[in-house]
Design brief:
single chain; alpha+beta; Sulfite Oxidase, Chain A, domain 2; 2 domains; five-stranded antiparallel sheet
Length: 169
């Protein structure tokens, strides 16, 4: 009887603690974006640190066909902070570099560094946590990339977890 009671208590504790542990790990891992790869200073972006950068507004249609207003930071500014090759140094073999963006579900998209550099393109590509004045819904955030001028939102990657700069060759 004592053994059954002891086993029952252990089971109840397990049922109570395990979901909390899994939830806490999931929330922590999804609350940062890792910037890494061919950069001088890899770093992590948090919800709080993103607010320290100059904010840019992008209005674009999403899958619902309606215009939405996104507020965020230009990805090029984040890559500059990491020491990625941009601006006057983006020439020669450095033009074969790209940024791989990855989501929590493994979805990946690629941007050539030239697409992100204001010296090459006038488009705005931002990292956002906000849509229409509100935090992104859970199925989109907490972080999302928004591309200002593409017809389809396929590269507006949701639930972003990492930005990695790499060489194509």
């Amino acid at each position: 009887m004592y053994t059954q009671l002891k086993n029952h208590i252990v089971f109840l504790l397990f049922v109570a603690i395990v979901p909390f542990t899994v939830t806490a790990q999931t929330e922590t891992s999804q609350s940062i974006v890792k910037v890494s790869g061919e950069v001088l200073t890899p770093f992590n972006i948090t919800l709080a640190s993103l607010k320290e950068y100059k904010q840019t507004t992008v209005i674009r249609k999403d899958k619902d066909g309606k215009d939405h207003t996104y507020l965020g930071v230009e990805v090029s500014e984040l890559l500059e902070k990491a020491g990625a090759t941009l601006n006057k140094d983006l020439r020669g073999e450095n033009l074969t570099k790209y940024m791989l963006a990855e989501a929590s579900d493994g979805y990946q998209v690629i941007f050539a560094l030239a697409e992100l550099d204001g010296g090459f393109a006038d488009r705005k590509i931002i990292l956002t946590t906000n849509v229409d004045g509100h935090p992104l819904p859970a199925n989109e955030g907490p972080f999302r990339i928004i591309v200002s001028d593409e017809k389809l939102p396929a590269r507006c990657i949701r639930q972003l977890t990492s930005l990695a700069v790499k060489f194509a060759n």
